[in-house]
Amino acid sequence: MDNKIEWLTRNVEMPAIDAGRLESWLGRVASAHGRIKGPLVYIFCNDEEIIDVNRRFLNHDYYTDIITFDYSRGRLVSGDMFISLDTVRSNAQSLGVNYDDELLRVIVHGLLHLCGINDKGPGERAIMERHEDEALAMLAGV
What pLDDT score was predicted for residue 1? Predict the structure, then answer.
């Protein structure tokens, strides 16, 4: 099975990312969670696209930074992740953080969902943020 990552766009320009470095990093993050990185697809889009996906597939009527579709089996993590660059940018501004740093956080957030980490239940958001911080710290070593 191909464990490559595809980086696609819909109605936006590709963000400036180092795909090789990110692929290595995401593989290390998956491994740190006892998982094997399978095929991953990141689709960068705008707010109009993300709300359309949210409405069509999840029956949610709101904007979000990422929607993760999980195709994982056992330890092999696989999925499609839609990331709204518009929402990433507005979140970065409202949080007072660098856009590129926020984009990296959202990219790894999707993988962490595939590794079984949730963020909707009581106390889960803090757990997710801790895992995001740990993963981001790993990027320095890649």
Answer: 47
